[in-house]
Amino acid sequence: MTAPTGRRERKKAATRQKIADAALRLFLERGYEEVGIREVAAEADVAVTTLFAHFPSKEALVFARDRDFERGLVDAVAERAPHEPLVPALRREVLAMVRHCAVEGAAPVRRLVEGSTALRRHEESMLLRHADALAAAVADDLGLPRATTACRALARFVVDAHVLARGADDPEAAVGEIFPMIEAAWSAARHPGTTDQSATQPS
């Protein structure tokens, strides 16, 4: 994510982070369902209207890095080095996401999400949106229609790879196991009729 450079942008980013931190602190202390929006706003010392200017829903407060993760996936495609293969670039981004989810303090947040039906549903919707954004980026990169099935399938596989890996005993090893399968599937989709031995690595 590009760091905010202007004074106004930095102030907005700081306010957003303050709200997210206050919300998470209350949710972890008392439970997601037990805390109301007004309480979060009061804890962050902002108006309710200010809170909603930064977060469209209560659920979104738990996923403050939503935009960053989506942008990271899109940028892994659009901003990779010239001639860098697509799947390794995506693997690198997913590995970074998995490492972020393994930092100290992440486990209680994961339990918070898994313990709330509303948060699980929000996350499912969020991940589908990430996959749609990634599929569009891949299609644009290759000059293909955005509805191309191979691009949409690749995007779903990549997003699911992150979900599977973060829940594994060894998340980084899981990324290493999953991505060769994604690479093989992508190669087969891009080069129908080739074998694993003869398939050309997709761009």
From TrEMBL:
Q: Where is the HTH tetR-type domain?
A: 13-73
Chaperone among keywords: no
MF terms in GO: DNA-binding transcription factor activity; transcription cis-regulatory region binding
Transcription as UniProt keyword: yes
The protein in question is named: TetR/AcrR family transcriptional regulator
Keywords for the protein's UniProt record, in alphabetical order: DNA-binding, Transcription, Transcription regulation
Protein's organism = Streptomyces sedi
Domain of life of the organism encoding this protein: Bacteria
Query: Which residues, as ranges, make up the DNA-binding region of this protein?
Result: 36-55
What Pfam families would the database entry show? TetR_N
